[in-house]
Design a protein that fits this description.
This protein is α+β, with helices and mostly antiparallel strands. The chain contains six helices and six strands; from the N terminus they run H-E-E-E-E-H-H-E-H-H-E-H.
Amino acid sequence: MINLAGVDSNCQITKELNLAGIPVMAHEEMLNSEPITNLTGKLGDFTFTRAWYYWVVNGEVPLNLAQKLYQNPIGRKDVRVSGHCGCPPPEEWCEPSMTVQEHIKTNLGYKEEMTWKEKLIFWQKHEAEFKEECKKYKQYIYCYHIDSQEGLNLFVQTLIENY
């Protein structure tokens, strides 16, 4: 991917999305991002937002699909789980749905109205238990950073073949 910082980027963004088969979404207002654009991509429940030299993808990728992406050499190097530059396997960064996480936190006694100090104490006391409970539920990766057109194409192809 070329670095789009500070350049007129809509043509390049459109080209990259089209090459991957991702529908282009034009927004009325410019996004508060770099590169400055009003374009994103949308494929099902996944959103694609261009950053300087990579794509940010948000959506729920089930762990088994994330593992499939990671098994591919391009997926392992260019489709980065949670944007992690070390390219770890997805098992290290997966989580259950946010609804499940909220349910687990509530069952452990977490309350939104707690002070920041009470929240800190809560997490010191319950973090290990929270993580252990989370492992009992279906796991997802919620964010990817994709560094190449080949990686973007692979991501889309994998989604289409498995949904």
